[in-house]
Write a structure and sequence with these properties.
By secondary structure, this protein is an alpha+beta fold. It is built from nine helices and 16 strands. The protein folds into three domains: 88 residues; 119 residues, Nucleotidyltransferase, domain 5; 106 residues, Ribosomal protein L30/S12 (60s Ribosomal Protein L30, Chain: A, 2-Layer Sandwich), CATH 3.30.1330. This is Peptide chain release factor 1.
C-alpha cells in the first residue's frame, strides 16, 4: 500500500468494508527465554481475548495464525494484525514499540490507532546507487528497515571499456565521446526510474550515491519538481567500496532531518494561524469533530490522545458525531473511544493525522486541525 507523505498510512477503503473486524497488537520480540515462552503462549492468550469479544471463529483462526515472532529484529518490536471475514488484511511489524500485554478489538470497523501512531509522519524514500553502467533504485518506507522493492538499469560496461581501450578503432576524443554518451544514456534511464517510483510512492527523500560523474549525470536529468528531495552521499556504494554502517547512519540522519523539518513546518503553520484569528485552525475536540463532519479538516494534530473521551461513529457521512446530542441519530453505529472514531473519520475524509508534541497545540487543548477553508 503506497503511503501518502505525512499520512496516517491507512487505506480508507478498509473502513468501507461491511462485517466484523478483529485486530490485535502484540509483542513480537525474541532474544530471551522469557520472550520465547511468551511467544509460545501468545496464540492461546489472543484467542481467549478474541473469543471474549465474540470474534468470528474464522477470524480467530486467521489472526492467531499470523502471530509469528519477529526474528532477527532488536527488541522491542510489536506486531499489528487486522482480520476481516477470515482474511488477514494487515500484518505489520512495528520496530521500537514495546507492548506489555496483547490488546485486541472486535467490532464493525477496525481499530487502527496503534498502527497510525507508529506510522505518524512516515514517508517513502528512494536510495539510488549509480555507476557509469547504470544503477539500482531501492524503495523504502520509514516504518520499516525492510526494502519495499527495487528496480535497476543495466547498461553495457563492456562497450565503455571497448570504446576506451581498443587501439585503432577510435581515437581518444571519439572514445571519450562514446563513453560519455553511454553514461548519459544510462543516467537518463536511472533518472526516469527515480521519477516513476517517486510519483507512485509519494517520496519525500531521494538519496543518490555511487560514481561521481554518474551521480552528476543522474541529478542533471531529475525533474526540477523532485530536486528539493535529492541528497547526495559521497560514497561508492554500487562497487562495494563503501562502509555500509556509515552509509546507513548517513541515511538515518537524512530521514530524521526530513521528519524534523516536517514537524517544524506544522508548528509554524499552527503558530501562524493562532496569530491570525484562527480562521484556518480548529482547536479542541468539539471544533475538530465539527471540521471533520464537513470534510473541512486537512491535517488533524493530536498532542493528547483523547482516550478519556468517546464519540459516536456513523455508518455514512459525516462519519462521526459529538458525544452529546441527537444529531444524525439514524446513522449511529455506536460509541467508541475518541481516538478510533477520529482516525476513521480522518481517513474517510481524505485528511491526514499527525501525532505531535503537546506544545504544538494552542491553549493546551490537546488536539487541533489545520483546515482546508476558513471557518464561517
Amino acid at each position: 500500500m503506497a503511503l501518502r507523505a505525512d499520512s496516517n498510512g491507512i487505506d480508507a477503503s478498509l473502513y468501507r468494508r461491511n462485517g466484523s473486524w478483529s485486530t490485535a497488537l502484540v509483542d513480537a520480540s525474541l532474544g530471551t527465554t522469557a520472550a520465547q515462552e511468551a511467544a509460545d503462549r501468545l496464540p492461546e492468550d489472543v484467542a481467549k481475548l478474541l473469543k471474549s469479544q465474540q470474534a468470528q471463529a474464522e477470524d480467530v483462526q486467521a489472526l492467531i495464525g499470523a502471530l509469528d515472532p519477529a526474528e532477527g529484529l532488536r527488541a522491542p518490536v510489536a506486531r499489528f494484525v487486522a482480520v476481516h471475514a477470515g482474511e488477514v488484511v494487515l500484518n505489520e511489524i512495528i520496530p521500537g514499540l514495546k507492548v506489555q500485554s496483547p490488546t485486541v478489538d472486535v467490532g464493525p470497523f477496525p481499530n487502527f490507532t496503534a498502527l497510525a501512531r507508529a506510522r505518524g509522519g512516515s514517508f517513502s524514500y528512494l536510495v539510488a546507487e549509480v555507476g557509469k553502467d547504470g544503477g539500482e533504485v531501492y524503495l523504502y518506507n520509514t516504518t520499516s528497515p525492510e526494502r519495499v522493492t527495487s528496480q535497476g538499469i543495466v547498461g553495457l560496461p563492456e562497450e565503455i571499456h571497448h570504446a576506451r581501450k581498443v587501439p585503432g578503432e577510435y581515437d581518444q576524443p571519439k572514445a571519450q565521446a562514446a563513453a560519455d554518451e553511454m553514461v548519459r544514456r544510462n543516467a537518463d534511464e536511472v533518472a526516469g526510474l527515480i521519477k516513476k517510483m517517486a510519483a507512485e510512492n509519494y517520496v519525500r527523500l531521494i538519496v543518490i550515491s555511487g560514481d561521481i560523474k554518474a551521480r552528476e549525470a543522474v541529478i542533471a536529468q531529475i525533474p526540477a519538481t523532485l530536486k528539493e528531495y535529492v541528497e547526495v552521499i559521497d560514497s561508492h556504494t554500487r562497487t562495494g567500496g563503501a562502509d555500509v554502517k556509515q552509509v546507513d547512519a548517513q541515511i538515518s540522519k537524512l530521514i530524521e532531518d526530513v521528519k524534523s523539518k516536517a514537524l517544524a513546518d506544522l508548528e509554524a503553520k499552527v503558530a501562524e494561524q493562532s496569530g491570525n484569528g484562527r480562521s484556518l485552525l480548529a482547536v479542541g475536540l468539539d471544533e475538530v469533530v465539527t471540521a471533520l463532519q464537513s470534510a473541512q479538516a486537512e491535517t488533524v494534530l493530536v498532542g493528547q490522545y483523547q482516550d478519556e473521551h468517546t464519540l459516536r461513529a456513523l455508518s455514512a457521512e459525516p462519519w462521526l458525531a459529538h458525544q452529546d446530542g441527537d444529531d444524525h441519530a439514524e446513522l449511529v453505529a455506536g460509541e467508541w473511544p475518541a481516538p478510533e472514531v477520529l482516525l476513521r473519520a480522518t481517513a474517510l475524509t481524505d485528511a491526514t493525522i499527525r501525532y505531535v508534541p503537546d506544545s504544538v497545540i494552542p491553549d493546551g487543548a490537546g488536539i487541533a486541525a489545520l483546515l482546508r477553508w476558513a471557518k464561517s
